[in-house]
Structures are given as C-alpha cells and as structure tokens.
Amino acid sequence: MSALSERPADAVVGTAVPHESAVLHVTGTALYTDDLVHRTKDVLHAHPVQVPHAHARVRDLRTGPALRVPGVVRVLTAADVPGVNDAGVKHDEPLFPDEVMFHGHAVCWVLGETLEAARLGAAAVEVDVEPLPSLVSIRDAVEAGSFQGGQPTVRRGDVEAGLDASAHVFSGEFEFSGQEHFYLETHCALASVDESGQVFVQSSTQHPSETQEIVAHVLGLSNSEVTVQCLRMGGGFGGKEMQPHGLAAVAALGATLTGRPVRLRLDRTQDMTMTGKRHGFHARWRVGFDEDGRLQALDATLTSDGGWSLDLSEPVLARALCHVDNAYWIPHVRVNGRIARTHKTSQTAFRGFGGPQGMLVIEDVLGRCAPLLGLDAATLRQRNLYTAGRTTPYGQPVRHPERLARAWQQVLDSADFAARSAQVAAFNDASPHTKRGLAITPVKFGISFNLTAFNQGGALVHVYKDGSVLVNHGGTEMGQGLHTKMLQVAATTLGVPLGRVRLAPTRTDKVPNTSATAASSGADLNGAAVKNACEQIRGRLAQVAAERLGVAPADVRFTGGVVRGIAFASEQVPWEEVVRLAYFQRVQLSAAGFYRTEGLHWDSAAMQGEPFKYFSYGVAAAEVEVDGFTGAYTLRRADLVHDVGDSLSPLVDIGQIEGGFVQGVGWLTLEDLRWDESDGPGRGRLTTASASTYKLPSFSEVPEVLNVGLLADAAEEGAVYGSKAVGEPPLMLAFSVREALRQAAAAFGPPGTSVDLASPATPEAVFWALERARCTEGAHVDEGAPGVRPDQPDPGAPAVRPYSEQVQHVLSRT
Ligand code: MTE
Ligand code: MOS
C-alpha cells in the first residue's frame, strides 16, 4: 500500500453516509446559482437574440427598437467587448458573432429590469442576415470535406497483415446519435462588480478556473481581477465543463457596463438550442477474427460531429480512440479520427467524454459479428477480454485484468446467467410475438485527463480555534457526491468525527488554477489534495500533542476526535484541546494542499503513452422483452458489478452506478436528438428542443429488478485511501441493454441472424431491426404472424427494407 492509498482502521471514508446536501435537496432549501437572484438587489436580466438560420452572415444589427421597449436598460454587442470577443479556449467561438453558425445562435444580448422586459427587447432587435449554405448532418460535412481540428490515429501492429491472416473478416458502418445533457438546472450566471472593479461571477460551472480566465479575457482584465464561485450545480454531466464560460462572460460584461448585478439563466429551450451536447459519431470499420473468434485486427475511421466550433471535440475524440478497444485485446489496430464541422451547437463533454462512443463501436462490431461467427455474443466477448501482460493499442499496460474476469464471473453468478439464458431461449421458442434477450457486456475505462497537466488538484483547509474544520477544494459539486467524499477524507485524515468538518463553496480565490471537475477524477485529485493539507496540519499538531503526552511525534495518533499516544494505556487528549494548545503556541492551523498524479505521460501527436493512472472495470447483464408488433420493450432486469476500488462512500458510489447506468440506457435507447435536415425554412433547427419531444429516462425506465454490486477486494494502490473514480464508467454498463435488445430482435429471425440496430434503439428502431430479422432468408415466418398484418410491409418483399436513413448500415463479408 502506498501512503496515499493506505486506509486507517477506523476511517470515516468507507462509511455509508447520505449525500452531504441530501436533506437540502429533498426539502428544496439547497441554493443553486439562480436562487441567489432573489437575495440580490437591483439585478438586471439578460436575454439572448437568437437567429433562426443554420448559417448566415449578419448584415445589420439594429438595437434602437429594443432600447425603446420599457424596462430595457442596454443591449450588449461586439462593440462593447473591451477584451477579446471570444468565448472559448480555441479562439474559434466569437461571443458576439457576425456570422450565425447554427440555428439559434445568439448574436447579442438584451439587459432588462425584468426578464420579460429583456425578452420583449430581444424580440425588438432587428437583425438583417444573408443566409449561407449549411451542413447539418455528419454525412453533409463528410461529403463537403468539412472538418476541424487534428486528425489523430491510434495504431499498433500491421492491420493489413492482421486482416489478411484472419479467418473471418467483416466490414460495416455505424452512425449513432449524441445526447442532450438535460441537467435539471439550466445554465446560469450571476455577475457583480465591487467598488474596486473586482468582478465576481457566480456560475453553474464545472470549471471555475476556466470560466474565470474566459471572463477575464473578454473583459480585458487579469485573472486576479475576476473571482468565480460555484455553489453547486443541478447536474453538469460534462455540459458545464466548457459551455458556461461565454454565458458567464456576457453576465460579467453586463455588470461591468451597468454597474448592476446581471443574471443570465437560460430557459430549457434556450439551453437545448444554444449549448453543446454529446457528439454523435459515424464509424466505418473492418475487423478480423481467427478461427475461434479471437479479434486479430481492427481498422476503423471514427468521425465525430463536432458542431460549429471545436470546444472539447479534440480531447473527446482522443478519448474515443483510446477506448475503441473497450475491454478487449486486439493485436493489430489502426483507428483514425476526425471531427466534422457542421452547423449545429458546438458538441462537448458528456459523461464518458468520447469513451462511450469509442466503446459503442466495438460493442456493435461484436454484437453484429457473433452470429456470423457462429458464437453466442457472451462467449465471443468473454473470449476476447484482456488478460495479463497485454497493453492497449496506445501502449499502456492493462493492469488488473483479473478484476475484469472477476467482475464477469460475479455477474454470471449473481445474475444466474446460464439458467436465465436457457429460460430466455425456452421462452422465445414458445412465444412467436414476444421475444426476450439477455446480454452481458464489460467496461474498461481509463481514469485521468488525457492532457497530463490537468491531473493536479488543490485544497485549502482551515482548523479554527474551537477545533472546527473548514475545507475548500478545487472540485465542484454537481450532485455526484464529491463534497461528501471530501468531508469524509478530511475527517479521516484529521481523525475527527464527520460532524466537525464543514465544506465551503468552490471559489477561484480560495483554490486557484484548478482543473475541471471532470474525467471522473474529482475525488482522486481533490481528495489527495485535501488529504495533503490535512496531513500538514496533523503533522504540526502531532508536535504539540507529543509534548503534551510525553511521546515522540511519530507515536501520536488522531482518531475519533481524540489524540493519544500509541500505547494502549496512553492518555487521551480531546482534539479541541490539542488545537487550543497549538493556537497558543502560535502553530499555523491552516494549510494549502496539493496533488499531482504521478507516472502519467501522453504524446498526443503519436497517440501513445500511459495517460491513465488506472482503469475502472465493470460488467453488466441485462434482460429485455420486445413486442414483435410494435418494437416496444421493457427492461426486465439488470445486474451490475462495478469496480470502485475501496469505496470512499458506498451510498454515493451506488447512486453514481445506478444513475450512470440509467443515463446510458437513455442515450442508447430513448433519447433521440433530431435536427431538421430538410431544405425548408427550418433547416438546422433542433426539432427535439423540449421535454415533450426529447424522451428522457425516468422512474418507469428503471428495470424492475436492478442489482448493483461493488467489486470486492479491489483497493487501488494509486489513489486516495484505496478508492477509484466512479462518475462516468457506469454509464457504459448500459451497453448490455442495447445488446439484449439486439439479441431479442434476432430471436425473431432464424438462428444465426445478425441484427443491425440503430442507436438510439428506440422502439421504432427495434421494430425495424426485428422486422428485418423476421424477413431474413430462411426465417420461419408464421402465417398470421405480425409481419403479415395488413398495415405492415409484405414479408415476401426484399429482405432489406427502406427505413430511417440513420439506420442504413452495411454489413458484408469482404
Ligand atoms: N452525477 C450527478 N449526479 N450529476 C452530474 O452532473 N456528472 C458526471 C459524474 N456523475 C454528474 C454525475 C460526470 S460527466 C463526471 S466527469 C463526474 O461525475 C464528475 O465528478 P467526479 O469527478 O467528482 O466524479
Ligand atoms: Mo465529465 S464528461 O468528464 O464532465
């Protein structure tokens, strides 16, 4: 055990405590940024002027009519920007653009005494535009050669030789959708300026330090003149990693120009039409297997739909390429990546950050190829899992692959997989119109930021004279329970009860130069920094206590709020007493903690290195039932086993696993982002811009039986108190549901039917998939079966029917 991972016997970490704000959440008393508006005097409200064109040049912008609207105070335009008119870190995102780059792009903002005044003012602004040709779909962009950013390749071995030597080679294509974050709290910023010109922005941001930097560069100020605070977020899911910056800058600009606080909160439709989403991807692939179904070679090109600007598209793509292997050993690999530039919102981070997209490709490949190889999918997957001594295609050794095998076995056992597979087969034999599927899929997910520099964390811990403790750290709370874990870490390190420790909101003037709370690394980075700060204080207090107890400082123990010597018979001094003594001896009771993850290196040009501190593992089994008349389905049961190391906070971790899984099920089966791809006047419009048209998973999609297990004996040597990150990886356990749907659809066809399933696998998509399975040559078509219902296509027609373009994939033996 390393000093970082070693856990004391009576640790507060590892105890099952509720989320630190659970009571506030459920009673409605938790404060979010927008709640502060009602506590702030003289607030102005900001409203965007969104232009309804996918692509257009702004010829003229007349703000005069808006200023005549009662209650309108000011219109913010590019001319008002004292610094850099750009909202991003890539300098490709003008904050006040003169070219409309997507349907709903905001070209200026109106400030009003009330939100209603600002809204009416925004409606009165006159914008003359010259429409320009637009690229809406990923296919449009590929055809037009419209790409942005780098085009990296991960390679190992000799793909052509590997394919040549393979017993079976298949090729195919797959296009799949992105995902709307749909955090309950939409984007929000509240900015004010003090008497010295210091700008204070409260923002729903996962990355306060970067929000601070962007606000500063827009205003032409130094970073020290801007402070950003994040109380908490009502969900971020990656959507608040980069997207809050420009919105915070607009509020801050308004505040500096008017001298009054400015509030900017997007309503749901604005949030959905203006801010970025998970990237949809297109993949083209060739894959080779040996006689036994062992992967030999993978050649693939992944194209992500980046939207109008780069934002985080490059690192998202890098993570996709680094996860295309998921949990499988592939000797020869060549995966190219590129980012399409389309006239859509700028797609961004979303839980998994490209990892899910890369992994979905290989899971789709295996799900489609298993029947063609004459293997059941579970066998094919298990046979290809990483084993000892293997490295990833980018050169990182896969440590602890036995955990993958253990998790796999644990799911087989706890889900009673073999017996239930037989039951599913028997059910399907007896049931012509309803079929079931049971699938098992693995997850391997790399933890750390690919960009090595981001792997640092900071904390500031104060112990007050009365022994109470206040913790600040660089991470933000978005519901994931980071603050709960940090309280537990501080209490463990200082050896005090949890109730002695309090946490202060995240602010850039307490802990500077922080990384985004992202890549699931919040607890790893900030936890190690909190621990470091607490250890400094504990070390100083040990000197004081040693003198008081008459023992050596190394023999002083802090536990449960008392300080004592190592001997069983030692006197016990209350923590408060030691703190008081230290104060009178003028011993510093405050410390800044810091942590950098050791051992990481990454060459982003060569796409080689060891970018991850460790891998998180998980395995899931899911069972579904599909109705052959409609494609409607239910998720009957899911069994999840996930590796969280030695959990810092088991209730929090289980909540993350459940939530991540359901969010993944949403992405893969329900949530269907549609843009108007027609040439009509609405071209480029997001047609699913509200909860009525964009279907989210809710209570009713949670499986009737949902078993979540934490992998036992899984302490992680390299992370704080032996824990592992949890935030993102469980989302990918949802592959099991998609694969179960594929298997259920296949059951409508003859044995060995390979099913090509669209993503999201909505009931409609499942219907078309099972319809094609039913019509596969050799299929047993029951007279009077659903395929011949009068309103359905004739089953005698060609096997491949026209269906939604997005599911037109080709799978062929080459
Ligand atoms: N859980 C909740 N409840 N809300 C969120 O917004 N974001 C996810 C995950 N879990 C999120 C969540 C994402 S995208 C990440 S990267 C991690 O939490 C970030 O927090 P962590 O690093 O503390 O795990
Ligand atoms: Mo999470 S997508 O890394 O914010």
UniProtKB/TrEMBL annotation:
InterPro entries xref list: Ald_Oxase/Xan_DH_a/b, Ald_Oxase/Xan_DH_a/b_sf, Ald_Oxase/xanthine_DH-like, AldOxase/xan_DH_MoCoBD1, AldOxase/xan_DH_MoCoBD2, AldOxase/xan_DH_Mopterin-bd_sf, Xanthine_DH_Mopterin-bd_su
The species this protein was found in: Geodermatophilus dictyosporus
Domain Aldehyde oxidase/xanthine dehydrogenase a/b hammerhead: 27-133
Gene3D superfamilies on file: Aldehyde oxidase/xanthine dehydrogenase, a/b hammerhead, Aldehyde oxidase/xanthine dehydrogenase, molybdopterin binding domain
Lineage, opening ranks: Bacteria, Bacillati, Actinomycetota, Actinomycetes, Geodermatophilales
Family of the protein in this entry: Belongs to the xanthine dehydrogenase family.
The protein's required cofactors: Mo-molybdopterin cytosine dinucleotide; Mo-molybdopterin; [2Fe-2S] cluster; FAD
Annotated region (Disordered), positions in chain: 779-814
Keywords: 2Fe-2S, Iron, Iron-sulfur, Metal-binding, Oxidoreductase
Comp. bias (Polar residues): 805-814
Protein name (record): Xanthine dehydrogenase, molybdenum binding subunit apoprotein
Highest taxon of source: Bacteria
Any one Gene Ontology molecular-function term assigned to this protein's record: iron ion binding
